[in-house]
Amino acid sequence: MLYNLLVSHINSCYIFSIFYNVIVRSGIAILLSFSISFSLIPILIKYFKYWKNLAQPIRNLGHKSYIAKAGTPTMGGIAIIFSIIISTLMLADYKNIYVLTTIFVMLSLAILGLIDDYQKVTKKNTKGINATCKLIGQIMVSIICCMIVNYNLNSEIANHLIIPFFKKLTIDLSIFYIPFALFIIIGSSNAVNLTDGLDGLVTVPIIIVSFCLGLMCYLADNAQYININHLQILHVQQASELTVLCSAIIGASLGFLWYNIQPAKIFMGDVGSLSLGGAIGIISVISKNEIRLGIIGGLFVIEALSAIIQIYSIRYLGGKRVFKMAPIHHHFEQIGWSESKIVSRFWLLSIIFSLIGLSSLIL
């Protein structure tokens, strides 16, 4: 809104012209969303912990650290999502269909996650709403958004899929693209949700992935000014406005991380993890980086696969477990790794995956 207002008055004041620059607005978005998130979270902590006693139910995994976690408030994702939406509406073009679609995904999945979190804290169990109901909600939101994005994308690239590390190789999925895009968005949402199991574990990877996606959205929109022959990327007009949104995710997540590093004063909750996962999923679909998301977000893929493998091994291998516990970060806890060791190592893995993903732009 602020961006649209300032641009409309550009003729009356030359300094307003700097707001045409996406990079400038992205930098401001980081600072603004960080400030809002950093300021709002202490209020949520006080409200949830002392006034409403809305603490996260903790599974007893046999660690002393989990005893200390009891009573820690959850739903910190409220501050993250609020900060992102406010910053984006102020600094991005709020008329941009891709921005509006991503905000719709975030807000819808945040509401779904909020309902899930509220049931957990009020009923004092770790299950929340029925898994089938949650999946149906995710599917409905994803279908709406995929149809909107597919309609607005250039028909020449709408159903195309880039294969990283294979120059100029794209696959036209035709009628199968929408189901594939649904899988990306829903899978991303649930994978991020599964990763959110230790203090600070999911926040840094979200920041890293958001940076990579923001960069790729900027490149996708400005492909005509770049030597496109040296980059494996498709031209998506107006995608650079999502760079501002990705920057807002970075800032809001940094503000949250201040309070979420071990020992966490507040947890993100499903309201944050489901919505942020859905956001990076839809952004990858819009910018035509669906498979590349699986690389830069490799940590999320590993966490999700470990849970899937565990479920199927128990079901089809006579109750045998591949991991001591899933998702895989709990496996490392069970073999004696400290929480800080797991988190720091997983952060490093996330950095490595992001570098591999970015390298696929030019290799």
UniProtKB/TrEMBL annotation:
This is Phospho-N-acetylmuramoyl-pentapeptide-transferase. It is found in: Cell membrane; Membrane. Pathway: Cell wall biogenesis; peptidoglycan biosynthesis. The chain crosses the membrane at residues 30-50, 70-90, 97-115, 135-153, 174-194, 200-221, 242-261, 267-286, 293-314, 342-362. Coiled coil: none annotated. Catalyzes the initial step of the lipid cycle reactions in the biosynthesis of the cell wall peptidoglycan: transfers peptidoglycan precursor phospho-MurNAc-pentapeptide from UDP-MurNAc-pentapeptide onto the lipid carrier undecaprenyl phosphate, yielding undecaprenyl-pyrophosphoryl-MurNAc-pentapeptide, known as lipid I. GO terms for biological process: cell division; cell wall organization; peptidoglycan biosynthetic process; regulation of cell shape. One of its GO terms (cellular component) is plasma membrane. It comes from Orientia tsutsugamushi str. Gilliam. Mg(2+) binds at N193, D270. Its EC number is 2.7.8.13. Belongs to the glycosyltransferase 4 family. MraY subfamily. Its cofactor is Mg(2+). It is a multi-pass membrane protein.
